[in-house]
Amino acid sequence: MDDTSYPAFMATTKRARRASDAQTHTMHGQHFVDELDETTARGWSDGGSATSGSRSTKCAAIANATFERLAARAIEARAAGRVIDIPDDALDVLAWLYGAKHLHKALEVIQAGRVKRVVGEKSGRVMYAVTGSGSHEAPYLCFPSHFCTCRSFFWECVSRGEALACKHQLAARLASVLGACASSTVDDLLLGNMMMKYMSTST
Questions:
Q1: Which residues pair with 169 in a beta bridge?
Q2: DSSP labels for 74-113?
Q3: Which residues are in the SWIM-type domain (predicted)?
Q4: Alpha-carbon span 98 to 164, nearest angstrom
Q5: Where are the domains of the chain?
Q6: Greatest alpha-carbon span in the chain
Q7: Quick check: 165 and 66 in contact, CB under 8 A?
Q8: Dist CA 92 CA 7 (whole Å)
């Protein structure tokens, strides 16, 4: 696997690293990508010619590290009374992981207010109801890290293994980190009934 197979911020040659550094954007005087877990980056390059399975695992690790940094920055922004946003270089990483078109659609879903977070009162269990870009669509039951009832999840993520997540999962995860979704707390029995309803309407 050569350097062109890596996202820019994980380039392994000095020349590629210098090019990456020259293009890296800053936020509050620090590089976003420099704050990602260095062991995650090293783990990728140590893998040599990765299989599709190991590549997917490493991409997921990079995604987790990216969202952790976004969550930390969101907390800092709230404490300082700043506007919560996503730095350009973080968007570059997310676009590399999920695809620019996929990311754009997820951001459109968030901006349209189509992500709803529902929490069980006693259990603390969390589900997301995410409506796609079409206003006629029924909401999909979504768990950002591992499941969505949309067809794209089963086709692209499960059957073909070509994507880390569908756009609904990505939208739910970003909205959760950025605090950009409506949230409500309901009785656990109602939460279970809602899950069953979303499952039945999407099949």
A1: none
A2: HHHHHHHTPPP---HHHHHHHHHHH-HHHHHHHHHHHHTT
A3: 128-177
A4: 7
A5: 54-201
A6: 58
A7: no
A8: 9
Q: Which one, of 107, 108, 103, 145, lies nearest residue 128 by Cα?
A: 145
Angstrom CA distances, 71 to 48, 64, 124, 126, 177, stand at 31, 10, 20, 17, 5
What are the structure tokens assigned to 5, written together? 């197979």
In degrees rounded to 5, what are phi and psi of residue 40? -65, -45
Give the type of residue at 196: M
Per residue in 31-90, pLDDT (tens digit) is 555 555 554 554 444 444 344 566 778 888 889 999 999 999 999 998 998 888 888 889
Instruction: Please state whether beta strands 182-186 and 115-120 pair in parallel, antiparallel, or not at all (unpaired).
Output: parallel
Instruction: Please name which of 175, 94, 99 lies closest in space to residue 131, comparing C-alpha atoms.
Output: 175
